[in-house]
Amino acid sequence: MEFPTLVYRKGGKYQRPGGTFSTAPAANEEKLGALLKDGWFLSLPESINGKHNFELEAEEAKADKKSSQKVKADAKAAEDRERKESAEAEVERQEQADREVEKQRLANEEGPTREQMEAKAKEIGVKFGVRLGDDKLRERIEDKLKEMAAEE
């Protein structure tokens, strides 16, 4: 730094947009150090802000760190949400697969054969023809059995 130099402080006889400022000469490092400790600044922008550049840089670094931490926390929260949704989707797929397996098992489950149903129909007096399907024959047999149970 070259000496003599000027230092600045908010308030004084010099005009600037938004207020006034003062200046003071610093002839050497010793005088400069004393003025800076006394609230003077190396530049007019620093005096306007009321903080030294190193203080502003420290505040910016602190704000950047907080911002970085927030970004990391937001990313972790998004990752956690994604994991939860993925797990829920997997549970739903598994439940759907289980329902399909059960439906298939019931569909494949062997009921009485056609011959057994025809024998039962003849035994209880249900009329049927060869064109009558298995489901309809089973339904007629069940209806007749319910009717017979109600008569007893």
Topology:
Elements: E1 5-16, E2 19-26, H1 29-37, H2 44-49, H3 53-108, H4 114-124, H5 134-151
Antiparallel strand pairs: 1-2
Helix pairs in contact: 4-5
Structure description:
- The chain has 152 residues and is α+β, with helices and mostly antiparallel strands.
- The protein has 3 domains: 5-50, no CATH class; 51-109; 114-151.
- Helices cover 66% and strands 13% of the residues.
- It is built from 5 helices and 2 strands.
- The protein has helices at residues 29-37, 44-49, 53-108, 114-124, 134-151, and strands at 5-16, 19-26.
- It has a two-stranded antiparallel ribbon.
- It is rod-shaped and about 125 Å long.
- The termini are far apart.
- The model has no long low-confidence stretch (mean pLDDT 86).
SSE class: alpha+beta
What's the story with the biggest beta sheet? 2 strands, antiparallel
**Low-confidence sequence ranges:** none
Query: How many domains would you count in the coordinates?
Result: 3
Overview in brief:
With 152 residues, this protein is an alpha+beta fold. 66% of the residues lie in helices and 13% in strands.
Descriptive key words:
152 residues; alpha+beta; 3 domains; 5 helices
